[in-house]
User: Which sequence fits this backbone?
């Protein structure tokens, strides 16, 4: 993605301002001690993994950083904020300007347009359905399988972080358990067996129980 932005900057011939939060994801995730309403969590270090109702990283590392920057800029400039949400993501449309929605461009249209102009994100969109934070617990099992297969070093990083934090990666799976599940799936597929359906889930349940002991 960083490479993609550099390339885009050259293509448009105008500087792109990159915003960064003061504190890193790793620090906030593993070390930061927020004031917590729940006293039982008072001594837990770090925000830990995001969840469906707790997307702390979106607020802390993205929207607040942008808002702070724009607030400063607004002192001397009249601003128009353009958001790159595609026309087939209508639920996310709220305010400001959404040129892709105005032009009726879907995600598929945008990807095709970018490819026609020489942008291919170094193949990321050939692998993943959506490209967001690689370590996001809100991505699908399928995207996580692809992460494990195509970016094993990132997968290992995920396993290491998961051992250092207190919230479970997914509601029903730690990364270690996911590793066991995906390895089990690989073994079944190598034998020509399916990885869906009742027989698979029964076998998976048994395998997970055995591997816990
Ligand atoms: S994509 Fe996931 S990890 Fe990234 S900011 Fe959003 S919730 Fe957090």
Assistant:
């Amino acid at each position: 993605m960083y490479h993609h932005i550099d390339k885009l900057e050259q293509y448009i011939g105008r500087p792109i301002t990159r915003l960064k939060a003061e504190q890193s994801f790793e620090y906030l995730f593993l070390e930061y001690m927020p004031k917590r309403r729940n006293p039982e969590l008072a001594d837990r270090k770090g925000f830990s993994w995001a969840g469906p109702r707790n997307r702390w990283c979106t607020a802390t590392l993205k929207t607040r950083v942008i808002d702070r920057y724009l607030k400063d800029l607004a002192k001397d400039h009249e601003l128009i904020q353009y958001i790159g949400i595609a026309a087939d993501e209508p639920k996310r449309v709220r305010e400001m300007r959404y040129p892709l929605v105005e032009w009726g461009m879907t995600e598929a249209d945008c990807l095709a347009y970018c490819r026609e102009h020489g942008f291919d994100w170094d193949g990321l969109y050939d692998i993943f359905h959506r490209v967001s934070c690689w370590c996001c617990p809100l991505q699908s099992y399928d995207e996580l399988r692809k992460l494990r297969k195509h970016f094993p070093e990132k997968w290992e990083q995920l396993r290491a972080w998961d051992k250092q934090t207190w919230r479970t990666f997914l509601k029903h799976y730690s990364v270690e358990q996911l590793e066991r599940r995906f390895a089990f799936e690989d073994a079944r597929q190598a034998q020509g067996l399916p990885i869906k359906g009742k027989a698979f889930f029964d076998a998976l349940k048994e395998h997970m129980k055995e591997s816990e002991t």
Summary: Residues 50, 55, 57-58, 132-133, 136, 138 surround iron/sulfur cluster (CB under 6 Å). The radius of gyration is 21 Å. The longest helix spans residues 56-73.
